[in-house]
Amino acid sequence: MSQTLYSIRMRSARDGRHISGAERLVPAGELEGLAGFLVRRALQHPRGAAAEIQLTIEEIPPGRLNRGHLPDVHTLRVANFRQGRQAALVLLERAGVRMQAARQAIERLAAGAAPDGGCMRGAMLVDARDGHRMEPDPARGIRASHMDLDPAAEEELRRRLAPYALDNEHVRDALVLAAKVLATPGLVAELCWSDDPGYVTGYVATPRDGYLRISHLKPMGDELGGRAFFVRPGCCLDAVMEHLEKSVWIFDRVGRIHPPMDWQG
Question: Is the pTM of this model over 0.70?
Answer without folding.
Answer: yes
